[in-house]
């Protein structure tokens, strides 16, 4: 027994030496074989089990490594193997489990803190993640400092993009293309697109420079690394409205076939948004890229949500009603308070001509989620307007209390009521908005009796209300508004003039009293050179320069003033063949074709004889073409000076045009001989 134990110990020592040598060489597959042999000697060897887990992780067998940990829980306690277990769970996308494992560890090592930051980033807890990385950078000094700073900048970029947080200046030196890229993403989140584009161009240059230094890196490898930078450039172009340039760059990236399924999914989604309801066949091809395996682990929740929204819209555009309803219902169950799923469902119902059902759906959502009721009711009003129910649309708009006083809402309601000729309701809208501003001013002044000037929006509403009432003949109602405006600004001459004009129709005496407040004509006169103004280049009328007055002109100037000269009418020109003895044709002003005596153009001499039927047929009877009959009774010649002529409808042929008696009526056509090999037909 002692000899056997000694032999086992010697064998184990040799195996451990093999494990150590393979680990140093990075040959973890061979090291795993040696570890398994050690475990056959002692199955509960803690060190051997730890080595086995590490070898499996290095070989990418995370599921098997986690199985070993869970199988030997008594030996491999959380204190011993906490990092390896959490890392396996993280790589298997069990992020919540990884977080619990890290938090349950009794000692927080540097490795666990690094992993903790990654887990928080994946869980989109950016504030906690930022604090974790700041602590790591502050308390660590090793060769991984650059990577930590890169991760820190990525967190700041995510906050700017998804949470719309203005990023603070971390003072990071952008010496690498990763830092430049993350800085550009943060600028995109702030809407600084031009600055972001410059950062991306710099990142592309740094990326090419750093990768070109490695002789083993090919041009294809560099282009693959640049793909994500170019994708972000295309996104900026899309935001700037340069859709053609963006589309071209997106397609170039897809042709490279990058291995990053997340990048491909985002690019495909962006192409679909450019296509919209056009080029749907291309969109249906691109949507397959968004369904690739592992996409859900590469993108943020908002990115995945946006892709699902676009899938539902694409289904609607391609008339896949059931698919559209299924996707939008799934989205609504995931985010019950989100507006887009309900709006997509309503749009699909409208495409199916079910407007009433769409309005009911929106009303139910507005009742369940009052916080989003305003946007939903605006959509409902739009649907009512599309149906022609303008009054009902106005009622819906007026039910949005938080928007009743807004100038845009007041303008829309007044326009719609005016279209329906409901002037009383339009004035009521003005009155309610003005009262709201009065109450708001009273609340802000805390009941102070000191005169406070009204806000510009308040005064603008009062002026618009007064103008509207004046336009529709409500003089008495407009007077109170104009008096309020004049009280706010007594120097406003325009308002005073409107007030006097309104009072002149209601109370002329009051109008006279108010007219005394108008400035005098001397103060209102402008020093304008009338002659220079009239003779200016832009004047429509230029007065002629006065010439010397002589004789009779001077007498007229002194006596009666200027007298307009009478223009002489020119005599109209008469035609050359005009005969005053002959009465002019009363229809001479009409076109020739519209005159009563027009009989059409004279046809050619032989056109009457051309047959229009089948070949060989004639249009007139044979008796009329018989020359012997017409020759026996020649027509009489017209008398000299007479206006007689042959009728246009006559079929009689003059003697000069007659053919000899022996001539055939029609000339036979020679039939064309068909050539050998020629095809028949015309």
From TrEMBL:
Q: Which residues form the Signal recognition particle SRP72 subunit RNA-binding domain?
A: 544-600
Q: TPR repeat positions in this chain?
A: 227-260
Q: List compositional bias (Low complexity) regions by residue number.
A: 611-645
Molecular function, one GO term: ribosome binding
What is one cellular component GO term in this UniProt entry?
signal recognition particle, endoplasmic reticulum targeting
Chief localization: cytoplasm
Per the similarity annotation, which family is this?
Answer: Belongs to the SRP72 family.
Name of the protein described by the UniProt record? Signal recognition particle subunit SRP72
Query: In which organism is this protein found?
Result: Helopsaltes ochotensis (Middendorff's grasshopper-warbler)
The root-end lineage is:
Eukaryota, Metazoa, Chordata, Craniata, Vertebrata
* Gene it is expressed from: Srp72
